[in-house]
Amino acid sequence: xxxxxxxxxxxxxxxxxxxxxxxxxxxxxxxxxxxxxxxxxxxxxxxxxxxxxxxxxxxxxxxxxxxxxxxxxxxxxxxxxxxxxxxxxxxxxxxxxxxxxxxxxxxxxxxxxxxxxxxxxxxxxxxxxxxxxxxxxxxxxxxxxxxxxxxxxxxxxxxxxxxxxxxxxxxxxxxxxxxxxxxxxxxxxxxxxxxxxxxxxxxxxxxxxxxxxxxxxxxxxxxxxxxxxxxxxxxxxxxxxxxxxxxxxxxxxxxxxxxxxxxxxxxxxxxxxxxxxxxxxxxxxxxxxxxxxxxxxxxxxxxxxxxxxxxxxxxxxxxxxxxxxxxxxxxxxxxxxxxxxxxxxxxxxxxxxxxxxxxxxxxxxxxxxxxxxxxxxxxxxxxxxxxxxxxxxxxxxxxxxxxxxxxxxxxxxxxxxxxxxxxxxxxxxxxxxxxxxxxxxxxxxxxxxxx
Length: 451
Description:
Elements: H1 2-27, E1 59-64, E2 74-76, E3 79-86, E4 111-119, E5 125-134, E6 152-153, E7 157-161, E8 167-171, E9 176-180, E10 188-189, E11 192-196, E12 204-206, E13 209-214, E14 221-226, E15 232-237, E16 248-251, E17 256-260, E18 266-270, E19 276-280, E20 292-294, E21 297-301, E22 310-313, E23 319-320, E24 333-337, E25 348-350, E26 353-357, E27 362-367, E28 373-378, E29 390-392, E30 395-399, E31 404-409, E32 416-421, E33 431-433, E34 436-440, E35 444-448
Parallel strand pairs: 19-23
Antiparallel strand pairs: 1-35, 2-3, 3-4, 4-5, 6-7, 7-8, 8-9, 10-11, 12-13, 13-14, 14-15, 16-17, 17-18, 18-19, 20-21, 21-22, 22-24, 25-26, 26-27, 27-28, 29-30, 30-31, 31-32, 33-34, 34-35
């Protein structure tokens, strides 16, 4: 009897210890969109307050990346991975700024869908791989690219997603392990289906599973694949309009959930089975921001059409948790704001505050536990902002489309600490690890560090 009890305790200890060690390894890297669990935070880094290309101030290296891609870099150990779509005409059709055109780019040129692996310390390209070559199966928006999804890694596998061109898994030496054709994934404007805007939801890896959210015009689904073999574990149909957000994980001790943004169906699914846990409706009708988890709360926001809410949801939620008319909370929605969400940018929860950035550069700070508005101040970018913010060591970093990186003091008092020009368009969210910040511009990948 005693031996059985000791054995059970040992198994439980090893399970908890392994989970803790695995989480710690992930937290020391930047494994997917916005880092671990998309929280956008990496403290104890080595990021300078200011940098300058003309004076070579705090610029470690600058590497040219061909083609057009809005995916963010991911980092594991000494390797960086990034994707791009290369064609003769791609960059000619990129149009940034604040405008409302919905028409897609009419480009039928052949594209090369590529993955690059770089050395984190030198910026040298270690290898490149061609995942697919051909005319893209769907069009893209003038502010989009054909390489929007950010890759994901678990330290052994590299998963890249090119939407209609396929889902691919490589090892760290660039060997293709498996690939999946998930069909034509047409993420268009639901009200004008001919307005094809390009696929943008990034894959994530959690507990040896690859999770993809494919909310498209016809045949929406959420799916789980074995990261080692590519075998489909389950697939759950969804009834929603096209969305562009990346799935998020609520890493509960006994309740791991996959959380999705949406319009008709915001919700969470059982990680093991794909079954629905909770759901709600009522958001912007073109959801882009990724859900995030902090303070044992799930934060979801969106902004388009008639609504621009922010929701703070309990992970204990079950069933339909949609708010009643004129209500701001219920048993599972801790608090909400009817207007204040962002169209494209995933928010930040850093310390006790939630930071929400609008496309025009208006930064709002809320008490993350209560929803109280602390401030709303403009960054005043030259044009718009599409990238999501990141945080480190008491500072917030926001990249504008014009190429300025705004460094803002974290906390209840608004203060712009510096503004650093990159000299090129910036559409991708930066990545941070212990030796600095890595920023993708239209033509380059740049490492910024205290020198």
